[in-house]
Amino acid sequence: MDAAEVAKHNGMQSCWIVVNSKVYDVTSFVDEHPGGPSLILKYAGADASEAFNEVHTQQTLDEHMTQGQCLGKLTGNPSALAQPKKSTTGNTGSENEIPPIVSMVMTHDFEPVAKALLSDRAFTYVHSFSSLEDRINSYHRTWSSLSFRPRVMRNVEHVNSTRCMLSHQSRFPFFIAPMGLAGSMHSDAERVVARGAAQKATHYCVSTSATLTHDVIMESFRTAQAESNMRDRSQLFLQLYVNSNQKITQDFLRRARALGYKGLFITVDTHILGKRIQDRRLQSRELIEAGITERPVGNLVSDGKDGKAKDGRPQTGGRSRPGVISQALNWDDLKWIRKEWDGPIVLKGIQSAADAKMAYDTGCQGIYLSNHGGRQLQDAPSSLETLLEIRSMAPEILGRMEIYCDGSFRTGADILKALCLGATSVAVGRPFMYAAAVYGVKGIERVIDILADEIEITMKLLGVTDLKQLSPDLVRVPHELRMSSRL
């Protein structure tokens, strides 16, 4: 297909793009694109390879494009293609602006550096949340509102911070949380994270919607382990979005199990995307830039047939297409999932003591207390609030199943507070993504070192030498949090 001809198809009515030297007619897909139509229209008649390869693999394209949509190989002079439409919503920066990694002394030091260097779209995808800014800040404040009761005059010359997670030892009581489509932050993101995790013997939970294929991620992880001098060995776990097509999920689980992924973390709070305010504002700006000024913005949009709204259409960040994530997921589905996955199962997205008890009663090995990083239900509880509710209303499950937490953990001290209250381990997500975006593998290692150092310092100042010595007696919980957990 001649480049000059491709350049003519540069609008909503006829939209062709070039990806990896092949021409695709994506006209029918413009309105269905998970990132919103503006992202595709930006590359109408142009070469979209670089932008596409940042967040997708060729396999993704092959799965979603029909044979008739591939118009053949690009021919002629590539300079005849249209130029991608310029965006005013992106940040600009250069490598010269990156501060030395030694200047990163706390995990939240990585965020402003990443924000200055990344495009608005990439940063917003990771940073977005469903509530207003003050509510998100309150999530950060919940863990810092707890104070310690240090013990003194104890020999703390040597401390042990190892923790077993789903029968697999880790050097530290934290692991790297799953983050979908991390390629928007770094073209090789999951491989970068996997290498850093392996070299520091830290567990990593890989997202279903990873940018790279799961065999590539596992291969990189194993290679890094072989190259490492670490005596300890970490593992890769798998986060699962249950597909509305049961067979797709079954096939995916079989492949993941064969590749060597260990525990399965089933996300149970994302059957529909929450209203992510930053995403909505960014989408609005992009639509205006694309000349689309009258259009609903959000998950509820007209299907064009009977005027009724259909849900499940994520608008930015390249998330799943409508209907991909099952909205019918229920407790009975654990039966067929277990037939395909004979390893441990953890439910991710537990936000109440009642569901924590249900997970225990149905034989799950663990629960993962999470509000999806504040990205789903507005005014959802923090993981601390849910953990306190479990201690009050379902204390019988404590010590009988593993409990993981995420959400606004930024220091080793906060991690130890969660462990004092009964958590097995803590997941940390955003700091690792920011660090990977700016510093690659070295950034992942730096975040791990920062948290490990803070954990050791805090343990010694608390007067404990082993994580087994942590108990609720070592933390003071504010009265209002104690009361709210009993409602």
UniProtKB/TrEMBL annotation:
Keyword flag Transcription regulation: no
What keywords does the record list, in alphabetical order? Answer: Heme, Iron, Metal-binding, Oxidoreductase
Q: By its UniProt entry, which PROSITE patterns does this protein fall under?
A: CYTOCHROME_B5_1, CYTOCHROME_B5_2, FMN_HYDROXY_ACID_DH_1, FMN_HYDROXY_ACID_DH_2
Compositionally biased spans, kind Polar residues: 76-95
Stretch list, region Disordered: 72-96, 299-322
Instruction: State a single Pfam family of this protein.
Output: FMN_dh
Instruction: Give the molecular function GO annotations.
Output: heme binding; metal ion binding; oxidoreductase activity
Q: Which residue intervals define the domain FMN hydroxy acid dehydrogenase in the entry?
A: 99-480
Cofactor(s) listed in the protein's UniProt record: FMN
**Cytochrome b5 heme-binding domain mapped to chain residues:** 1-75
Q: Where is the composition biased (Basic and acidic residues)?
A: 303-313
Keyword Transferase listed? The answer is: no
What family does the Swiss-Prot or TrEMBL record give for this protein?
Belongs to the cytochrome b5 family.
Q: What is this protein called?
A: Mitochondrial cytochrome-like protein b2
Native organism: Rhizodiscina lignyota
